[in-house]
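Reviewer 2 asked us to include a model.

Predict the structure of this chain.
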Amino acid sequence: MEDIKKENRQEAVTEETKAETAVVTDSDTKEKVPEGAYVMNLARPYTYEDKTYKKFVFDFENLIGEDLVDIETEMTAVGEFALSPEISTSFLYRLAAKAAGVGSDVILHLPIREFGKVKNKAQSFLVSTGYGEKTL
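Predicted model (structure tokens):
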């Protein structure tokens, strides 16, 4: 089992390397942004726990299955369950946090307008992958 995990991690590192090479430049900041990532510029700076954010970059395409398991584990630890993750606000904001590389509490405390946009982007991504589809 450990060999499988190690192999999967090596594949993930390879995918990360690919993602680092497939980038575009954000015209506003001249920052490199992974291709296909969702950039959300905030209406006004947002401060959470002494860190100020002006934008978030959500790279949903680089998430792996382990990220979904981590989200479920985090939810279980606080007594939450998602029977349908694609419509669970708790699941979706955690998914967005993983995609942005920030703690889930950072996303949870966003102003409602930004929170709603982020949740909807996470939902659109999850549904676009076929997650939650019923198979016969």
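The longest strand covers residues 38-48. Residues 2-128 form one domain. We have added this to the supplementary material.
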